[in-house]
Design a protein that fits this description.
It is built from 15 helices and 7 strands. The protein is of the alpha/beta class. The structure holds S-adenosylmethionine (SAM).
Amino acid sequence: MGELRGTHVPVLLERCLELLAPALGRGGRTVHVDATLGLAGHAEAVLEAHPETVLIGLDRDTEALAHARVRLARFADRVHLEHAVYDELPDVLDRLGYPGIDGILFDLGVSSLQLDAPDRGFAYAQDAPLDMRMDQTRGVTAEEVVNTYAHPDLARVLRVYGEEKFAGRIASAILRERERGRITSSARLAELVRESIPAPARRTGGHPAKRTFQALRIEVNRELAALETALPSALDALTVGGRMVVLSYHSLEDRLTKAALADRVRSKGPVDLPVELPGSGPTFRLLSRGAELPGEAEVAANPRAASVRLRAAERLDPNATEQGRTDRERSRRRVKGMHQPGTGSA
Ligand SMILES: C[S@@+](CC[C@H](N)C(=O)[O-])C[C@H]1O[C@@H](n2cnc3c(N)ncnc32)[C@H](O)[C@@H]1O
């Protein structure tokens, strides 16, 4: 395990701690899952703030786990570190014998460890073999995707996961290059992307290869499929009063998070009944208004925070009729408001 490069600053740390505190600090032993442990910046702060809390830290990257283990060594008696994809959470909880959890954090995407590693191929700015697997023990590499996908599949990956306007042109350039030989390096790929984009477009929107590299990383790691499965399982695992916080870094992740929460915070009963039918009320309440954005000071101190979107929710007590009634009234007022001319919903 090499030395860590650069300084890793956990994103929206104070806000995450503030949101998790009522769930983790409610007395007795509580259980917190860090679904994306990384270098354990958030996890360490949670363990420091909550001396009674047990941490279950997941990461699919064995190198990240090794660093986290060192960082969290002084908490070893209340920490479980697991090499797992976060959609395996139910199995992990079963195996460890924790039927319910009190808090869970998803800090999505890649870590600075992965981005800065000269040999892992995540960064377009450094030449490296085209790997991009977060879990280097299994799965296909970006090199295999780039050298084997048919044109329509490659173009779809770039368009959907990278929101790349020039997906078709880039895919064509990749296929032409493949006829000359295998594309094996991140620098060659970045150069190909740059050459396929019209000159005026190269001058806007950051590095021309940024979107292609994001798209390949999402495809290689099946990131969105894992997230789509993991979010409902995480919500199911939370006890009453338990809280989930999600930090997303692009619109596709944030959209999945918003949809998973929307499904739990709305009533499934008829709109015009004064009380909820048993089992039809909301099971969660939102703790964030829309997606929360970082403040200017946070972005200035930590450029990685620039694109973050935070959403959070708390599990409701199904027997708390007062809460159910209040939420129901609020939800009815909202529905009524949506039918007034000139009003809408965020
Ligand atoms: C942004 S970093 C987390 C940083 C961490 N919050 C900290 O303070 O150090 C994201 C981490 O999540 C891991 N990761 C991403 N997708 C994952 C998944 N589907 N399952 C498990 N770990 C994942 C990555 O390997 C990476 O180490």
